[in-house]
Specification:
Radius of gyration: 16 Å
Number of strands: 13
Mean pLDDT: 75
Structural class: mainly beta
Largest sheet: 5 strands, antiparallel
Distance between the termini: 6 Å
Length: 180
């Protein structure tokens, strides 16, 4: 199956009621979730960047920008099971600070690798990376991949043997997880 992630409004014509949703699609093209599964707990204005999707071959990982209770920006992830069950209903804060966006995530060698562009107000442009366990626990330290003046985008490719194929079109993301 594939997982499609998108942002959309509910209850109003624009932004105040914007949410993130997922829909599973079968290899035959059948939509498995109608209505879509809402994956954020509350409406947010912080869907500026399309989320990224990765898979460990069993579960999907959806990663995007959110805000913490103190108002700072965070990178939040949640896993979705093959049956559409949200495994991390509150999400997991994977990194905080700066202004994260333009996410990409891949699974290889038994772990996820998440990269993102950070255009923080004081940090200039940075490309950051974090290795994560299947349970979304950090592995090692946050990695500064590159420090640059202006960011365009961040992206990565993983081991093709892991059968991860990602198609990213703003604001739609689909991931093929093989014959699942």
């Amino acid at each position: 199956n594939w997982l499609v992630v998108f942002s959309g409004e509910q209850g109003m014509q624009c932004c105040p009621e914007e949410h993130r949703f997922v829909v599973r699609v079968s290899p035959a093209g059948a939509v498995l979730d109608n209505p879509p599964i809402r994956i954020d707990a509350v409406a947010t204005f912080d869907n500026y960047w399309p989320p990224a999707v990765g898979s460990d071959g069993v579960n999907w990982l959806v990663v995007g920008m959110d805000r913490s209770l103190d108002g700072s920006f965070v990178v939040r992830g949640l896993r979705i099971g093959p049956d559409g069950t949200i495994l991390d209903p509150a999400g997991v804060v994977l990194a905080s600070g700066g202004y994260p966006g333009d996410f990409d995530v891949v699974f290889s060698a038994g772990q996820y690798f998440l990269v993102w562009a950070d255009g923080g107000m004081t940090s200039g442009g940075r490309i950051l990376g974090q290795r994560l366990s299947r349970e979304l626990a950090p592995i090692g330290e946050l990695t500064l991949i590159e420090q640059i003046g202006h960011l365009e985008e961040a992206g990565l490719f993983g081991d093709l043997l892991d059968r991860i194929t990602a198609i990213a079109e703003d604001p739609l993301v689909a991931v093929d997880v093989g014959d699942g």
